[in-house]
Design a protein that fits this description.
4 helices; seven-stranded antiparallel sheet; single chain; alpha+beta
């Protein structure tokens, strides 16, 4: 395609100016310019990936999936499925982790079984965090999940105070035993709307993965 003629009053074009400078530039200057261009492209790609939501899905006997943004994949606890987290100045600010959950056989309803099983979750947290762990409460989920139960607490991670909320979740099937445990952490003061650990996941970067979470 032929170039559109440009009136002399509006020239020379940026492309012509740059091409002339590129021809007379030394090899080190060209290499430096290409490296700078590569850095700019990398920053743009990183910014897009930060803004655009990512997703994770897992098949198998207990399939699940969720979306997230502003969080990055990192290694989960031993035996966990997946973990996404956010760090600020080298300190953990937010964490969303999914691990397997399996209840023992039961004949009653989950309204009875979840409170009976919750001490097992609390004992695991106490072993993990030691004296830095403080249980604040437990109870049924406040969302539309009828097969979910919460354990919420405060804890110190690397010397920093954090709110914690573990969600025990099973598929909505009769006498289901295999499900997932969603463990969330959020730093104190990270969100001014969050004043109690049960609110973790209700706002901020943890809201998207929790609200988008689908089990089974």
């Amino acid at each position: 395609m032929a170039a559109i003629p440009l009136k002399p009053a509006y020239g020379p074009t940026l492309g012509r100016l740059l091409s002339e400078r590129w021809r007379v530039a030394s090899r080190p200057a060209r290499a430096l310019a290409l490296a700078a261009l590569g850095g700019v492209i990398a920053l743009v790609v990183a910014a897009v990936l930060t803004v655009q939501p990512a997703s994770f899905s897992r098949g198998g006997p207990v399939p699940f999936g969720f979306r997230y943004a502003g969080l990055y994949r990192t290694a989960p606890q031993a035996g966990g499925y997946v973990r996404v987290a956010r760090h600020l100045h080298g300190h953990l600010e937010d964490s969303f982790e999914v691990a397997p959950l399996r209840l023992p056989p039961y004949r009653t309803s989950l309204n009875v079984e979840f409170p009976l099983y919750a001490p097992t979750v609390v004992a695991t947290l106490q072993r993990r965090y030691g004296r830095a762990f403080r249980l604040d409460g437990e109870g049924p989920s406040l969302s539309d999940w009828s097969s979910a139960y919460n354990v919420f607490y405060t804890v110190q991670v690397e010397g920093h105070d954090m709110y914690g909320r573990d969600v025990l979740m099973l598929p909505e099937r009769h006498r289901a035993r295999a499900g997932v445990l969603i463990a969330m952490l959020m730093a104190f003061g990270e969100n001014h709307l969050l004043t109690y650990p049960l609110h973790v996941g209700g706002s901020g970067v943890l809201q998207r993965p929790l609200e988008s979470f689908r089990l089974g």
